[in-house]
Amino acid sequence: MKLPLFRRLLLLFLGGIFLALPLWAEEESGLPEMMQFDDDLSVPLLDPEYAQWFTIPYTIGYPPVISNDMNLSAYQWNAIDTRWINMRALAMIAGDWSHFYQKDAGIVQVGELGHYNRFDMRGVRLGAGGTINFEQPWTYLFSAAINAVQKDYDWNSGNWYTVYDALLGMPLWGEYGRIQIGKMKEPISMERSMGLVFEQVMERPMHLDALLPSRDIGITLSDMILEGKVRWRAGFFNDWIDEPNHSFSQSNWVWVGRMTAVAYEKGERLLHFGAGYRYEDLREGMARYDVGPEQSFVPPWLDTGEFAAEASQTLNMELTWMDGPLWFASEYTSVWTASKAYGDPRLSGYHVAVNYFVTGEHRGYNHRTGTVRRIRPVLDFTEGGWGALELSARYSSLDLNDELMEGGEMSIVSLGFIWHPRYDLQFHAQWSRAFLDKPALSSPAVAIENATDILQFRFVYLID
Question: What CATH number is associated with residue 121?
């Protein structure tokens, strides 16, 4: 079986790294014995107690061996530490159980959803990440999802896995200036930059899933300025390698950037602002925005369908406030699409969310990535404690109607809790009510408003 071009290049890239490691490495370890970081503390970089790596959903950017930068590894058996290379095997398993409570009007809008009242795998992801130990370490990350574990998987498709991350990070200038090359998340939106285990509720807000992409192939530059209070990252993306029917010049060109700032920080209090801009030259000539009800299995409830377009511009704004066990966050996203046939529609959405740890824990903040960290329970369940209990609430809204575009409107209220018995284990329980305003499937001219309740449970297990 002939491998696609991207996979062949990836295999050659990884093989070349491992063959060249003995030539690149110095006679002594390429890493300094000690490294200073944010709090003017020092740790031995190769001390197993402090060694780190990137969790699966994390956007790569800085050496993962710095304990103040990334999350502490709970394991050592999954680690390879040598003078040439540091590596951590990683895995994530997440399973969901969902139930939809539909009214007759809801069935007319989106169809009968009894098929989705079930347990299914949210995701199984495997990968590896770590450092190549030059004098200034390079970082790498590879992760993939196993699609074949889901109940609706089509065995005739041949797409039994999906490569999520395949990238290399290298230092360029100063202490924090870096370049990242490969397949990765585009640098826009805090919630988009964070991963599954960092989210405030079970799924991302629908406006981010509908209006922003997940991952693309590209190159980015990043740095921190003003004594670490401001961070920026910008890049260019073009996924022609994954698009066999388009050349580089025929595929969509994307320029995107994100800047974040810590406006206030004292103790456990922190105020974060962020802004992102994305321009996409739609050389393939088509655009589409669709999304489900913040549940991973069901087909889209809002959908513009494919439509002719020349370009799109996206603005994203972020606000986060943390005060001890309290975490408040909000984002707004607006997309203007140049489409003469549909009157150049402007589509937008936002969310407001608040989380609170009943057990008193608080989430830290990662200055190097401009994101919120996941937490470690104060009293681990396996060590005689009860773990951490987190309450969550969110309101999100998305409007895909503007000018001649009629993709529908939806708002969702979600309430739930997350139990963290250990650092590597999560259990979620959540109730949501989705208010949907869109025409009936059989009568597109008839607008219907309806509310559907969704009950969801999830477990997440991590090896990192």
Answer: 2.40.160.10
